[in-house]
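REVIEWER CHECKLIST
Item 1: Sequence provided? yes
Item 2: Single chain? yes
Item 3: Sequence as submitted:
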Amino acid sequence: FHFHVRCLGLEICGPSKMAFNPPARQAVDQGFLELVQQLLSSNNDLRNAAEKRYEEAKRSEPLQLVGSLFKVLQQAQLEQAVREQSAVLLRQCLGKVKEADSLWQKLGAAGQADVRSQLLQLVEAEPNATVRRKVSDCVQSLGNQLIDIAEGQRPQNVQEWPELMPSLMRMIMDPSKDSHLRADSLWIVKELTCSVWQMLVASAGQAYQVLQSCLADPSEAVKAEAGAMLCSFVDNIENKEERKPFQPLIPEVSGVITLLAQGADSKNLNTVLQSLQSTTETADFFKQHIASHLLPILSEIAKSHRDEASRKYAFEVIISFVESKSKMIIKTPGYIEKALEVCVHFMMQLNDDVAAWAEEDDEEGEDDEEAYTFGKEAVDRICRCAHNVELFPPVLEVLKQAVTKLFAAGEWKQVVCGVSTLSMIAEYVDDEATVNQMMTGLMMQLAASHARVRYVAWGAVAQFSEDHSNVVTTEEWTAKLLPEFMKGLDDPVVRVSVRSMEAFQHFGESVEREDLEAFVQPLMEKLGAKLQSGSALTQKKAITFIAVIAGQVDDAFAPYYGPLMPVLKEVIQRTLHKVEERTLLGKCFECISLLARAVGKDGFRADAEQIMQAMIQATQVPNLPQNDPVKEYMMAASERICATMKNDFLPFIPHILPGVLEKLTLSPKEFTGGEQFDEDSEVNLTLMQENGKVKIMIMYSSDIQDLKAALECIHTFVEELEAAYSPFVAQTAQALLPVFDFSMEEGIRDLAFETWGQLCKAARQGGQVQVVSELVMEFLKRILPKFEAEQVDLPGLRTSADGVTVCLKNAGPGILSQEQVRHICKTSLSLIAESLKRRAESAKGRPGSQQPDEDGDVEDDKEEEEDEQALRISLCEVAGAIMQHHADIFVAESFSTFLELVVQGMQPAAANDDKKLALFVVCDFLEHLGERVTSHWPSFMPKFIEAILHPEPEMRQPVCYGMSLAAKLPAFAPAAQDAAAKLSEVVTKSRGRSKKKSEKITQACADNALSGLVQILLNHEQQLANVKAQLWDVWLSGLPCQEDDEEGIRNHKQLLSLLQQERPEVVGEGGKNVPKLLAVLVDVYKTDMADEETSKGIGQFLLRLGESKLESLASQFSEKQRRKLLRIVREAQK
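Item 4: Structure as written out by the authors:
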């Protein structure tokens, strides 16, 4: 075989035209050889000493060190482990080449050229496959760091390392070379494609010839690496047209996969399969051949290949195609059906030894049935993709047929697969009818004869309770499910019983008190027995079960408090010093805190001190693990007890607060490479830039969780104790400051800023105005400079903006000067302008990027655009906070510029994001500036009112909310009738829609429209003339509110007030509307849709109606409503 390829600007010929001379061997320094050997030593002292000597050599003699490493690698007779370690060390030495103080820079131009040359010689001369691959890794790592081809360029060669690609191509195309050397050379090129793809595209014909030749090579290793290189290559090519010339190779790749699947060694097959795990570019490249060539091969490998890894890789490729080009793949005939077949095949790989399974503990280690888990999660991934591109309904139909078939088979494994599939798709099901249908199927499996079927059925109940609590916890379903939970507690298989208790945690948290009360006693009898005699795991689950019941039935749990507390105290005493039972101890604290909430501060007062002391003592036990669960449970329990006891909790603060504040010192540390991590702990990594250098920062996940729990605990203390917390404000503020610069998770900084705002509020309530001012000034001094940073950090900027907002809102009036208002508003507007500029530049750089491609898939930077819009909204909210407490200064200094933003955003040609931003700003104008700016209404109010009927609910909602604000002002009178008609239309159409998860935002709009409508009715009665009665009917029929809690509180408070006034339009002729409206108030009593004042008012109102009147009205109530009515009256009489 002789070849002649002109490539990369150089003539590369076969062996007859070019010979290779390996580097001359050089003697290895024995001392250096011993150093490398000691670096591999199992003796810690010896290894640590060697590491210090090695690091010193890197600093003081870098050139000699690199030379010594090369000498070791040139000696094939040396110990393989030593040579492998030398290759690894060499790769590390050749890192960070762009940094001025890197070892690479110290080599100088001549030394760098020598290294590049010797690396290529080593690759070609190395006889050992393992060492050669490590040297190859050095080549690709150095090449990827050095090569930097400018955007838009298509060079014939790489100037940073001119000999690299010609040498690799020569080795690849020389049939006299060892096939593994050629495969390794292909591997290097594959690893380099992210840097050199432009050059390969420039020589597309030659690159095609190389790939075609290698795919037809006799060596399986060469074939495999050629297939992998093609996948990596096309994955990096940005332009579809530049990928196109290589598509004729696809049938050859398919043939290679088929051939490799039949081979004895699965390593080569796995090389290709791993490279096929696709991105959008790869999926687009293969799209014409996926159904015809790839899917049949891949599904066969996934289902029947002898190698487990190959089966998983093939399955992963099938799913990754769905994720990469969702619309195209889902629309490909038969693809989803075939993919689901493979999912079921994997899920069916369950252990036949049910007795052994029953003895296993879910909490001990990972589930060993990996294939089952893999298949189950794949169903979820397919559903998520379909949901994201709005193609879930057709996929659901395929899934329904598959589940029906599995259930019909009757065998336990098939039924387990069917139930597991239902669990995975629950999240994506939209309409209530389908949820009810699925739940009916699940109910039948709760009583199945096979333990594993019952187990997954309880898991599915938990999933549906989480995803569809509004359906699963209706009166109809609770009546069916609660008796099943009673049976579940008695299941003879402990693992199934435990699973039923876990399911109750999700289910019970949304069950209404009236539905649960009748089952409390029998449930508590069974749970009491488990608490007394069960295993530690059973006890934990029983305690959680009890805590959920206590949380739902509130003071009805009081009779169980007395008998239960001694049992819980005994568990605490027994487990306090047992490190292995920390979760059980934590669960006890959680349960007691929920019991405290149920019985109230008077019922809990006698036990409070003992329990608080036990919690403090529990955190002081020596030798606790890094991820000790008690710390988090203790802080969460302290929050609940504080919320229950209010100011009576104050004496405990000095004892608890220091330990909580200590957690705020937890912070990331720089990763140096020598860290020893706990084997069972998760570690988070993040990159941070400092002085032009990138640092890797690390932090244990448990530490992050502890930090977050501490912040939540402090936040609750400040929020609940209000002015009483003011003595601790300075101490807390000082401890919070380090968290302002936390770099691992924006949620932590956000919570810290929120807590700072609460400190401002507590100081204000405590009459410490000077302290408030100092807190605000300190916050602004630290945060505002971040707005002017050169590097744009969208999440960080948004968190900072939200922090300014919460700080200013809680600080109250009279804090900012005129100059500060001007500066903050100007800075916010400047950042908004910069964000809009980035959006424009991004759109310019990707013409038509927002349009779907030929397959219907949209390739865009949606996440970044959402982050930009979220930032702009947050910046406008900063202005809203200033309007709230510094309205006059804002109007004088900044109103005109924000008005301009509004006017521009309401132009017909404006983007929806800009219109939404304008609507939010208008709401702030209406809420905080009121009559100060009514003279400017003509410039925005007509279009604002017009947007009430905007087709998108996300746009309608702020406008409907804004109507409730505008309607309170006399200037709104001329627009009242038009606005009322539009709001009425929103309510009527929204309430008439079918019940779906996707309709929640629509119903939230209607809730806001109700607020606007009632304010117009109350404030502009004269303008409504003949339509007034009709509008009142619309408002009344739209109640109760369904989704927006805040609007629910407003409307239901208003309803109570109007009933108390006996407003004729509300009570109706002869009081005909009263039973229905009273039922609304009964339903919302002590829910999120009524605040404490309204709930108390409902009770007093019912008392005033009198017993006989209530009996008459209640005759039209449901049984559940009658039970709740009795409870409301009973509580009102206390």
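Item 5: Key structural point noted by reviewer: The two ends are 100 Å apart (CA to CA).
Item 6: Recommendation: ____
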